Amino acid sequence: MKTQEYTPALGYDKLSDMYDLAIKLTMPEKQFRKKLVDHLSPQAGERILEFGFGTGANLLIASQHSPDSEFSGLDIDPKIHQLAQKKLTINNIKANLELYNGEIFPFESNSFDKVYSCLVFHHLDKEAKTHSLKEIFRVLKPGGTLIIGDWGKAKSRLMRIMFYTVQLLDGFKTTTDNVKGLLPEYIKKAGFSEAKETGFINTRIGTFSYYQGLKQK
Question: Per the confidence metrics, is the pTM higher than 0.85?
Answer without folding.
Answer: yes
